[in-house]
Write the structure tokens for this entry.
Amino acid sequence: MTRLTHVKHGPYAPPVAVRELVAVSTDGARLHVEVHGPQEAPTVVLVHGWTCSTAYWAAQVRDLCVDHRVVVYDQRGHGRSPASAACSADALADDLEAVLAATLAPGEKAVLAGHSMGGMTLMAAAGRPGFQEHAAAVLLCSTGSSQLVAESLVVPLRPGRVRTYLTRKVLGSRAPLGPVTPIARRILKYATMGPGSSPVMVEACARIVHACPARVRHAWSHVLASLDLDHGVRALTVPTAVVVGTADRMTPPVHARALAAALPDCVGVSELTGVGHMAPVEAPEAVTARIRELAALYVRAGRDELEEAGA
């Protein structure tokens, strides 16, 4: 299980959950789940990415939980969810279905927002019954469906076999990241964040990422390197918004544009100028506003219609 080393104070310090629970996935994997906000409010489910944890969504949870019910969980092997031998896109989909079943009433709708591997989780689950039962709308943030290594800009070389080979080696390293040092912060900022990211933002991301065990980081890097979820994009038939930073080296805007072109019901692409891969931390207001908008249009409005019909 991952050690928790997130920041303790400020906007990126995770708020205290109203309720914590464990969701059990199909293969028995146990997932740490937190619920924030009023029980009867419209629900938002936030799914974090590779090497992150529930703490990654701290800014969104703090803002949204005032008038939304917010569900966050640790992907297997991340945060407080124990590691599992099973690492695959199907396992991510299984886990999401387990979390939705544990936190939502039958037929209850929610906005599902995923960052990076979290967005890939939503694509992997798009055709699943549990997903289709509960998804009112989706936000895909800083993510892609395939060709992740080939399109990455982390290694500053021309596209081709050499860059792809080196990128695979860098992202798939078995080496532990060690303590959060000034050099470590600079490396993380270069690879995953925009040039204008503040020291507070970099520190928050560094503590979260460095807390992920090397073996977990390595295992999931192999899954991401060979990922092909283009079919999952086509299965996302609910209204889906896309957000990407123009300075994203991990999943550059080419992915967002490909998603927008392939989605059956794309409701907009937001390209955030100067923002890197860590958009929810680098541009929290913009990402939160998009989630709020989706909840207002597709969850709150749907509830109002049901109440009027019942009356």
Observations:
- Residues 14 and 58 are 5 Å apart (CA to CA).
- The first strand starts at residue 19 and ends at 24.
- Residues 284-310 form the longest helix (27 residues).
